[in-house]
Each structure stands twice: as structure tokens, then as C-alpha cells.
Design brief:
By secondary structure, this protein is α/β, with parallel strands linked by helices. The chain is built from 13 helices and eleven strands. Helix content is 37%, strand content 15%. Bound molecules: pyridoxal-5'-phosphate.
């Protein structure tokens, strides 16, 4: 089965004449700009925010391209990677006709975005050890399956999917394989962006929300073959990344060695937390993690979750998710926060009779 991009793009998207914004029709230097109905008098806060931002984020893309050894035309920048998830569904899936495949337990947005777009979701659960079940995937895929979402490192299980398995799926599948690498900076496994040359149907998602510590700025990335990125650019809202966001991300990229340092500290803190958590009698299992959280199986997850809430500590109760029964997902905090968690857990251990 060969991959043919043209044949899987929605016809309305293929034929779309994209919105032409003032700033995309003219993007050079000029003496006077009277083309975009901006407020030429300025804003209360100055800083040039009265002007529309660069719709294609050229400067930011050049920096990201340089760091990742890619072309700027292999990069889409979105309002969080959640925007890329929505767009990839809209580009390839005809509502009520096509479907996407997910591998639960996994990130909830794939399913929600599909539902918003009236696109059916097929499922191929992960195996007991949270790896991709290739046979189940082969069984679940049909002629209308346009996308397979693979999250690696996976949320909420924390582990990476095997690289060779992902690539095998990408080479067998005639649709798009979306690999969500939101947590890649906490993992030793190499990013799949190195494989984009060999796999024209691969889309790799990354985000500034996790290791970069910039969840509030809302910037995410999709890396792919130029022809796929062209489609993203066609359907994206004209000014989807604000000027403020572009500036903040450029400033952060200048300090990227600090980010690598923080990610390494979080990984160390994660393993310290694992060692201590293991000693509690009510902790049944702590899963391996390549991310900034631990998935922890306990005796009574919902009871413990409520207890922690009462102690004003919020973790994520994942116990009603298939294969995550009695599991809590605990984000790695600052040392002081993790200490507060551990103290609360000690109190809990004393209070429950087992
Ligand atoms: C947190 C997370 C994201 C990030 O989404 P943004 O919209 O970029 O904040 C993406 N994918 C997964 C699996 C996540 O856990």
C-alpha cells in the first residue's frame, strides 16, 4: 500500500483558496502601513502590539528549523499542539465518513477533537505493558481510517512506544501517522523528527507547554513533509500565534540550555519520588516513566484522591480509565511540593487500616 497524499486530503481543503490577510499579501518593508485596519495611533501598552503578527511566524520558524536541522517549510506553529490536532483532523477526515484510530489509554484531546469534527474514533488498546498492539491496530483500521494517533511518551502511562513499531506502522499505513511527542524532552528516546525524510506520512507534534514551562503562552509545533505543512498553512486561522507568544518563544529559545537543565532536574526528582513512593503500603505499582509524571497504582485510588484534595493537593484520578484501574497520575512538582505530597501520604498511611 503506497502513500498518496492527494488521495486522502479532503476535497474541500484541496480546492480551498485560503484567506488572504493584509499581512500575507504584503509582508515587506514600507514607509506607511494603511492596509490592515489596525489602530495607527497605537495601544495603551505600546510595544507595537497595535500591528498584526507575522502570519507565518518566519523568525520563530527559522530558529526552530536551525535547532532541529529542518527546513522552515517542515514546521507548523500552532496555538498549542491542540490546534495541530484539530487541524490535522480537519484536513484529512470527512465528517461522518472517515475515522481516526487512537490507542487507549492515551491523551483525551484526540477523541474530543474528532468528536467536535463529527469524525468517528476507532480504538486499538495498548497491551498490558502499555505498548502498541500492532495486530489490534491492523484489525481496527479500515479503508476510511485517515489518521493514527500515537502518543510517545504516552499520557497517562508515561512510557515510550517502541520506535521500530511506530515506524513499521507508518510504513504499512496509507494514511497519516501522528506521533505526539509532548514529553520528549524528559525521555532518552530520540525524537522521530529525524525520520521525516523517510516517512512522508509522518506528523510529529511537540509543545512548549511541558519541558519549556510555557503552557500559558499556548504554542505547539507540528513537524512534517512540506506538502503536509502547506495544508496546515492553508486551513489555519491567519493570525493563529499572537505577537506576544512569538516574542516569548523566541526569548525562551535563546535560553534553551536552561530548559535542558530543568528537564534533567525534573527527571532526577521523578526518580527520587519513585523511590520514596514505593515504600508506602498502599502503593501497588509505579510504572516506568519517560515523562514529567508518574502513574501510580494504589489500593483505593478514588479514596486517596479525595484525601489529597482535602489536603489541598491535586493529582489526577485516572482510575476510571481502562488499563489504569486504581491509578493516580502525579505530576512531578518542585522538591517542596513533592515533600508536601509525601507528608500527606504518610498521614494517610497512618489513618487507613489495611
Ligand atoms: C500536555 C499535552 C499536550 C500539550 O498540548 P498543548 O496544546 O501544546 O498545551 C499535547 N499532547 C499531550 C499528550 C499532552 O499531554
Amino acid at each position: 500500500m503506497g502513500f498518496d497524499l492527494e488521495s486522502i486530503v479532503r476535497e474541500n481543503v484541496r480546492n480551498l483558496v485560503p484567506y488572504s490577510s493584509a499581512r500575507s499579501e504584503f509582508s515587506g518593508d514600507a514607509r506607511v502601513f494603511l492596509d490592515a485596519n489596525e489602530n495607527s495611533f497605537g495601544s495603551p501598552v505600546g510595544r507595537g502590539y497595535n500591528r498584526y503578527p507575522d502570519p507565518v511566524q518566519s523568525k520563530l520558524k527559522e530558529i526552530i528549523a536551525d535547532i532541529n536541522d529542518l527546513g522552515t517549510n517542515n514546521i507548523f506553529i500552532g496555538n498549542g499542539s491542540d490546534e495541530a490536532i484539530d487541524l490535522v483532523i480537519r484536513i484529512f477526515c470527512r465528517p461522518r465518513i472517515d475515522n481516526v484510530l487512537i490507542c487507549p489509554p492515551t491523551y483525551g484531546m484526540y477523541e474530543v477533537s474528532a468528536a467536535i469534527n463529527d469524525v468517528e474514533v476507532k480504538r486499538a488498546n495498548l497491551t498490558r505493558d502499555f505498548q502498541l498492539d500492532v495486530d489490534a491496530i491492523k484489525t481496527a483500521v479500515d479503508v476510511n481510517t485517515r489518521l493514527i494517533f500515537i502518543c510517545s511518551p504516552n499520557n497517562p502511562t508515561g512510557n515510550c512506544m517502541r520506535r521500530n513499531t511506530i515506524l513499521r506502522i507508518a510504513s504499512l499505513f496509507r494514511g497519516i501517522v501522528v506521533v505526539d511527542e509532548a514529553y520528549t524532552h524528559f525521555s532518552k528516546q530520540q525524537s522521530l523528527i529525524d525520520e521525516l525524510d523517510r516517512f512522508p506520512n509522518l506528523v510529529v507534534l511537540q509543545t512548549f507547554s511541558k519541558a519549556w514551562g510555557l503552557a500559558g503562552v499556548r504554542v505547539g509545533l507540528a513537524f512534517a513533509d512540506k506538502r503536509i505543512i502547506d495544508l496546515f498553512n492553508k486551513v489555519k486561522p491567519p493570525y493563529n500565534v499572537s505577537q506576544v507568544a512569538q516574542e516569548v518563544i523566541i526569548a525562551a529559545l535563546e535560553k534553551r540550555s536552561e530548559v535542558a537543565q530543568t528537564a534533567a532536574e525534573i527527571v532526577m526528582e521523578r526518580e527520587v519520588l519513585r523511590t520514596v513512593l514505593r515504600r508506602f503500603t498502599f502503593v501497588k505499582k509505579i510504572y516506568p516513566s519517560d515523562a514529567n509524571f508518574l502513574l501510580v497504582k494504589v489500593t483505593n485510588a478514588t479514596e486517596l484522591y479525595k484525601y489529597l484534595l482535602n489536603e489541598q493537593i491535586v493529582v489526577r484520578d485516572r482510575s476510571n480509565i481502562e488499563l489504569c484501574e486504581d491509578c493516580l497520575r502525579i505530576t512531578i512538582g518542585k522538591t517542596s511540593e513533592d515533600r508536601a505530597l509525601l507528608q500527606a501520604l504518610k498521614k494517610y498511611e497512618k489513618s487507613v487500616v489495611h
